[in-house]
Amino acid sequence: GAGVSQTPSNKVTEKGKYVELRCDPISGHTALYWYRQSLGQGPEFLIYFQGTGAADDSGLPNDRFFAVRPEGSVSTLKIQRTERGDSAVYLCASSLKGTGRDEQFFGPGTRLTVL
Amino acid sequence: AQSVTQLDSHVSVSEGTPVLLRCNYSSSYSPSLFWYVQHPNKGLQLLLKYTSAATLVKGINGFEAEFKKSETSFHLTKPSAHMSDAAEYFCVVSVYTGGFKTIFGAGTRLFVKA
Fold first, then answer.
1. Could you write out the DSSP letters of every residue in B55-79?
2. Which of chain A's ends, N or C, has fewer CB atoms near its CB within 10 Å?
3. How high is the pLDDT of residue B42?
């Protein structure tokens, strides 16, 4: 079956612009996660949804970052007033129940470059 | 506070020799622990997980890991390395914070020499 998909695969933007990154999880998965991975580092947790609600958004670095999952499936990560330091690969993952014990299935990521 | 420490940023082995990737964790609660692998230009894939059942966990591609609570360790091993094992490996802890937060280690790059 289809895995987790993310669009776009690459996004180049200018400092100060607004960007949206999309994640399509595996059908039926209730939990959805966003991570940010900088070069040479492990993925950094940003936010986790259980259904439509954000169960933990403690990893969002500041109020320029926001994520939604209005119907409990597709999610959008929104970044306002982008900065060069936001350049990274943004990863999305989904899991069946989000119990903390179940496997997360990762998408290929969106590489964001802020010029 | 919860954290994960991968003790080696790089490990190099010869093909056919054992692999040991070390991971220590810190958690106030009984954790769930995972190892994920990231091959170049590919997505993260689960190797194995520990969720409070058997302390010796077997995963895919011949990898296994042992949960040692007294040492707060979850080291990943494989008896005989293959060239295809060359990749980045991440130790991961899942902690309950009202929801489940996932914390990744910094990663260990495994090199396999012919």
1. SEEE-GGG-EEEEEGGGTEEEEEES
2. N
3. 85
As a whole number of angstroms, the distance between CA B82 and CA B64 comes to 15
pLDDT at A97 over 90: no
Write out residues 25-84 of A within 8 Å (CB-CB) of B. 31, 33, 35, 40-45, 48, 50, 55-56, 58-59
Residue A1 banded pLDDT, cuts 50, 70, 90: low
Round to whole Å and give the CA distance between A12 and A115.
7
User: What's the one-letter identity of residue A103?
Assistant: E
Report the gap between the CA of B100 and the closest CA in chain A (Å).
5
In B, what residues contact A, Cβ < 8 A? 32, 34, 36, 42-46, 49, 51, 90, 94-107
Give B74 or A2, the one with higher predicted confidence. B74
| CB pair distance less than 8 Å for A106 and B103 | no
Element (H, E) at B79: none
How distant is the Cα of A41 from the closest Cα of chain B, in angstroms?
5
**Could you report the per-residue pLDDT of A15-50, keeping only the tens digit for each?**
999 999 999 999 999 999 999 999 989 999 999 999
Residue A10 to residue A90: CA distance in whole angstroms: 10
| Partner-chain residue, chosen from B36, B51, B99, that has the shortest CB–CB distance to A50 | B99
- Whether the Cβ atoms of residue B42 and residue B36 lie closer than 8 Å to each other: no
